[in-house]
Amino acid sequence: AQSVTQLDSHVSVSEGTPVLLRCNYSSSYSPSLFWYVQHPNKGLQLLLKYTSAATLVKGINGFEAEFKKSETSFHLTKPSAHMSDAAEYFCVVSGGYGGSQGNLIFGKGTKLSVKP
Amino acid sequence: KAGVTQTPRYLIKTRGQQVTLSCSPISGHRSVSWYQQTPGQGLQFLFEYFSETQRNKGNFPGRFSGRQFSNSRSEMNVSTLELGDSALYLCASSRAENTEAFFGQGTRLTVV
Asked: B29-39 pLDDT, tens per residue?
């Protein structure tokens, strides 16, 4: 069965410093992995996705994530945090084969706070 | 291009009642999925419909049901509401397999 574990429920950084949100996954086959962001009172937005192509995936708004099979990790990073990055971030694995996004399994989420 | 539209945005119901939520996908999208978001359980998959057929189902009781119409619009129904059904219900649509899922803003259901 597929699952993801987000290692931090809350991360706080200062504006301009790097962001690291950690995620480990468990999958019985080659997984499709995603990061979504949810701003308050807004829907979920896809930041980036990994579907067995390049292991370093670049997303929107300067975010990127690296798929590490040996560590079963898919951590999200950004070199320099912006105040507008404050939101909740979800690491997600596809519940189906081949990267289908019709059945997504979400982690518990990491709330990112950005201090001025 | 219009996004995924969910109606109503907010709903208050009494225990024991039933409720129907609606989701209009992005034009051309044939897959619609439903998720429940609560503070305790987080985001959980309810079911997925593709071309009017339920393709996947999450681990929810039979009180939760859904359907999809020929124009890809989808509804989900919850019967005999319980206090624990209070949640944000999110709908997502995608064009087909392996394509990005776009989420609506959700329907906030409160059961009193």
From this structure: 999 999 999 99
The answer to whether B96 faces chain A, any CB pair under 8 Å, is no
Q: Which of B90, B94, B105 is facing A101, going by the closest CB pair?
A: B94
Q: Per-residue pLDDT for chain A (116 aa), expressed as one digit of tens each?
A: 789 999 999 999 999 999 999 999 998 777 889 999 999 878 899 999 998 778 999 999 999 999 999 999 999 999 999 999 999 999 999 876 555 667 889 999 999 999 99
Query: Residue A89 corresponds to which tokens in the numbers above?
Result: 């971030």
B36 Cβ contact list (under 8 Å, min separation 6): B43, B44, B46, B60, B87, B88, B89, B90
SS3 state of residue A88: strand
CATH number at residue A34: 2.60.40.10
| Of residues B92, B39, B4, the one with CA closest to residue A36 | B92
| Count: domains in chain A | 1
- Chain A and chain B share a number of CB contacts under 8 A equal to 65
Beta bridge partner(s), residue B44:
B36
Q: Which domain does A59 fall in, by range? A: 3-115
**Closest Cβ opposite residue B100 in set A90, A101, A105:** A101
Any alpha helices (H) in B3-85, and if so which ranges? none
B44, A108 in Cβ contact below 8 A?
Answer: no
Contacts of A45 in chain B (CB under 8 A): 103
Q: Which residues pair with A58 in a beta bridge?
A: A64
